[in-house]
Amino acid sequence: MARFPEASPGPEALGPFPRGDGWGAVYRLYDAAIRPLPGLARLARGYFWPSPIERARDGLLFRVLGVPLFGCLVPTGGVAIRRLTGTRMAPYTLAGPSLRAARAFFYRACIFEALHLTPMLLLVALSAMRWAEGRPDLATESTLINLGVNIYPILHHRHTRVRIVRLLTLDSGRRADPPTPG
User: Fold this and answer.
1) CB burial of residue 102 (10 Å; 0-12, 13-18, 19+)
2) Pairing with 141, which of 17, 80, 176, 181 sits 20 to 30 Å away (CA)?
3) What distance in Å separates the CA atoms of residue 10 and residue 55, rounded to the nearest whole number?
4) pLDDT, averaged in runs of 10, over the chain (182 residues)
5) How many C-beta atoms lie closer than 10 Å to residue 85's C-beta?
């Protein structure tokens, strides 16, 4: 039976949106869209906060699926690509070795995941439609494209947030179950 993490801070450990990180317009847009709908805000926090299964054994699920390897090779900011090209690719990396930078990166990972979510759902629908039309070859093609372009990037961003929550857990030193987001 899988062991679930016993201690983890809740979403409130992230604090308010970071200021001055160049993403202010996105945060303001999110805030303006969510503020009138508290139920939607609670749903969003619950979706983006890593689940106990994702946090189990320090992200074992992601390691089994090969997400860290994908993270090294992803062309838009993987470690291997950054070392090869000598670029920093700031949106895809921590701004510095601090908890504040980790919190800011948590929010950016949410944004990047949200950007992949809609195309992923559209390609899932396209794959299902192609399968229903009797075209398993095209359904398989759409699914493979979706895996590389959307699903693995989403898994990568979820794994990043698991690692950030682990840092926050080590920092907080609390031994209580995380509160339900909301």
Assistant:
1) buried
2) 80
3) 13
4) 46 57 67 76 84 90 92 75 74 73 83 90 97 96 94 92 84 51 45
5) 10
**Residue-wise burial string across 32-69, b where 16 or more C-beta atoms lie within 10 A, e elsewhere:** eebeeeeeebeebbeebbbeeebbbeebebbeeeebee
- As a whole number of angstroms, the distance between CA 146 and CA 11 comes to 29
Could you give the 3-state DSSP secondary structure of residue 37?
coil
Closest by Cα among 74, 79, 54 to 65: 54
Q: Between the CA of residue 163 and those of 55, 84, 158, what are the distances in Å? A: 8, 24, 9
**43 DSSP assignment:** H
DSSP 15: -
Reduce the DSSP state of residue 161 to 3 states and report it.
Answer: helix
Helices (H), the chain: 24-34, 38-48, 52-55, 60-64, 67-73, 79-85, 99-132, 136-146, 152-172
Asked whether the whole model's pTM tops 0.85, one would answer no
**CB distance 154 to 71 below 8 Å:** no
As to burial, measured by CB atoms within 10 angstroms (0-12 exposed, 13-18 middle, 19+ buried), residue 84 is exposed
